[in-house]
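During the second year of the project, the team shifted from modelling isolated chains to modelling whole assemblies. The rationale, set out in the original proposal, was that interfaces cannot be judged from single-chain predictions alone. As a representative example for this report, we include one of the complexes processed in the last quarter. Its constituent sequences, exactly as entered into the pipeline, are reproduced here:
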Amino acid sequence: MTDESSGVVAEVFQNEYLPEGASVADAVVTITAGAGAGRTVGAGASAAEVIMIDCSGSMSGERLVQARKAAAVAVDTLRDGVAFAVVAGTDWAQMVYPDVQTLAVANDDTRYAARQAIRHLKAGGGTQIGTWLTLARELFLANPAEIRHAILLTDGRNGESARTFQAVLDQCTGLFVCDSRGVGQNWSAAELIKVADALLGTADGMKDPAGLEEDFRSMIEAAMGKTVAGVALRLWTPAGARIRFVKQVHPGILDLTDRRTDVSARVGDYPTGAWGAESRDYHLAIELDPDTVGAVGEEKLAARVSVVRGEEVLAKGLVRAVWTDEEAKSTRLNKRVAHYTGAAELASAIQEGLAAREAGDTATATARLGRAVQLATEAGRSDTVQLLARVVEVQDARTGTVQLKRRSENKDVDIDAEIAALESRRTTRVRTN
Amino acid sequence: MTAACPSCAAPTVDGDHYCESCGADLAAPAEQFTLQPSAGPLSPPVEAFVEPAPPPSASTGEWRSSKAAAGPCAACGATAGADGYCDGCGLRRDAGSEHAEHDLPGVVAVTDRGLRKRRNEDAYAIGVAGGRRAVVVCDGVSSAPDSDAAATTAAVEAIEVLVGGGDITGAYRSASVAVAKLAGSAAAYDAPACTFLAAVVEDGQCTVGWVGDSRAYWLDGDGARCLTVDDSLAGQLTAAGVDADALRLSAQAAALTRWLGADAPAGDPHLTTLRPTTAGVLLLTSDGLTRYPTWTDAIDGDGDAAELVRRLTNFARAAGGADNIAVAAVPFDPSRGAPQP
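Output from the structure prediction step:
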């Protein structure tokens, strides 16, 4: 169902039939915003962009050369009128362009000046990502732009305590969207995922810095295509229901479960950031009050889903539950739901496996990464299987029998696992029907 | 936006001369819009249907329907949302009643869930206005979602038009517009749908209009005579004189070729007019009764109409109650001008 004038459509994919006594309703909601989404804002929505480049000592050489090129391309891709800044990140954050703490307005002159400034980026010092994000936050706060986007490039692990880092992320949440990128051999997937989850962006990593230029261009192009910010997924759930999770599952996995803002007793909002003409999938799992699950033949609403901007409803959909004693109906899996359930399990198996490996828990690491190999094999994700095969010895991919390889001196191999962790969060969409 | 388009109900903006959605001339009086005939059964130009002018003297007539009564949720006592689900516990509100009976002077109707279906997706509405008696029977298409809402909405919309003095075609169009609004845009090919059967009895004649496979019969001393032709392959063959039963056609042959709903093939209802010269009963029924071929044995010429429809409903339940049942009757006597009580 949709309010056609908004240009946003919500479609619900689910098997609404539950066996007697079951209480969990699973659904994938596909939200598609057309070119005219949120027409009141339109293509001319004010936008601001902050580009954060890691300039720590390890960046020196080819990596910094490529990072400079990528940043220059990013600046060139900004459309006229966008407020922007380039920040160099080390143990602290430093303005590269403009040279005072403010956002410049993109035009031919400022883009040229920014490119000149970027040419002079030098490497030296450590990596304190929180300080970079804090400067970005201050820049955005001083500017009224509606669409706020940042790019964060790092080649190393964050030198800050997890607590400090989390505190900064909490402050930035809701203020701007941030895509983060790891380059080289020493970055951590877990940290980039933290940034992506908190700031509703993408996370990606690569060994070879040569790909940065193209990647930066497409990130800016995507950001420039956003026409409406502050869009939320609003859920009404019946009395006594518990929301197990709310996740964006396409184009990438983002867990929104803990991001709820209560609107009223039964209604809560989950942030989705800024939208252009695009389509995303959200997976909801709602546990209905087990004391009041329906009798066979009864139908209940498990959730009313709407896409809202402020109090304006852009699209609506219903998640239903119908109890049946016909097994053929209740055991049927909805293809989209099953697909994303598998994708999410793969992503978390890799992340948990790597965390266990980091902590020296070989047994857990072996089990989780083995499961990941099995899931990736089943899903036909051969790229992920190949990346995992560099950290585990695969004995039988079908059953997930693996042996953990020793952590190698060759960082090049270790980073493959981090890349796999990020890669597995990107999902494809299955065709339904 | 300031107003809805009189043709398709899409929102319009002040100063617009034409509707952005359907292109209708917004400056023209509503009567100007007419149904565009369509060559094939592809896309239903539901937007092109006329939404008839409000009945000139609605207060003079009255009507009843099988629509479920409004009120707090049976399970938790909370109120229902506009989408038909309880705002407290989420329980679905059925649009129709599990069982309903109504009578007005000279017209009676009964509907029943039957024994096998989960809810009653049949609906009726009956009305009287001056010398006119009107009946609408709709059977929700069970393969489509929210068909109980489709049937109930269609019946209520149509009877309002008929009691207000409109004709059956106008009632059908009005019902189509209302039912099309129930469909979400994502469900363009899986929209709420129902059959449509309506009758108007006045000035010594019975006019019947239909789309789908709910049927009208004329019952008199000679037995039951079917006045309608089902919109299905089997129905068309039977009407052409072929013994469809003998052909052992697949179940597909009974599939509806026309229905009422957002994704329905375009067109107006079939119409037939009867000027009985003998006394009898005009019977309108869903296939919940006529699916049992021996139903005509349950007709008893002696009882009154209310007794007849109840007996037929009980017959269908006793025969298995496989489907929802809706039966309405209008007794008719050409020798008497006034409605038969």
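Chain A has three domains: 4-38+230-308+318-324, 47-224, 336-423. Chain A touches chain B at residues 1-2, 4-5, 9-11, 237-241, 288-289, 292, 294, 297-302, 304, 317-318, 320-321 (CB under 8 Å).
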